[in-house]
Amino acid sequence: MKHVTEPGFHTHAVRVELIGCGGTGSFVLSGLARLHIAMLELGHPHGLQVTAWDPDRVSHANVGRQLFTMPEVNHFKAECLIHRINMQYGLFWQAVNEKYFPDGYIPNHSIIICCVDSRASRAEINQFLPKRKGPYLLDAGNDLSIAQCILGNGSDKLPYPYKVFPDLIDTTFKEVNRPSCSLAESLGQQSLFINQWIATGVLEILWQMFRKGGLNHRGFFINLENGRMNPILINNKPNQGELKNANQTQ
Question: What is the total count of domains within the chain?
């Protein structure tokens, strides 16, 4: 085991800040509810305490590719998803219909899951990260058919993703994504199931952190065109292929 999960993950309520409730974030949030229930069944004393952040509202183009329904169009994404999950599972998770802004100290046994769709948004989040070891950050992003999820906690062995892959926050790159007016148009920019693939990668990393108590790798690169999934090793410099994939955004 190359990385051992922070001890507080097994004894305290684990604070999760989910930033972005769109293509990937909506699937991640659904999986977090399942993870929470499984943790409690396996003896965790508290499970997860999730706050979902997103200033956007549901559009017609979101229905079908993201986990939203037609009656939810024009309503806030975070509010729709959190209300649904709280009703289904009897939880008291929170929705914030704004951009992420940390309120005070975030303990090390916390996870920030970044599911935003631009380098500019990642760069803003990066400003809130501590300069040394702190809470975990799990970044998830994709383009048409390539995706990545990368974990870090600011330690020497597990640096934050944006330190290892600075291209992810380099705002000099031209952003290729833009709002879509229809589902058909959005499918020209992203594969229908790419978000679900990368969300599963995010959730598998979290599952291993709790169930196995640690990790042997810090994330994945997924390429649906050639059918490959490659691990991102802990304390290893990325190769040129990985750097190319890291240039992709959600």
Answer: 1
Secondary structure (H, E, C), 103-138: CCCCCCCEEEEECCCCHHHHHHHHHCCCCCCCCEEE
90 to each of 33, 44, 151, how far by Cα in Å?
Answer: 10, 17, 29
Provide the domain limits for residue 8.
Answer: 3-246
Domain holding 16: CATH number?
Answer: 3.40.50.720
pLDDT in tens, 205-240: 999 999 999 999 999 999 998 999 999 999 755 554
HSE on the CB side for 8, CA within 13 Å?
Answer: 13
Residues 6+ apart with CB under 8 A from 68: 26, 58, 62, 77, 80
Return all residues near 108 (Cβ < 8 A) that are at least 6 apart: 6, 8, 133, 134, 135, 136, 153
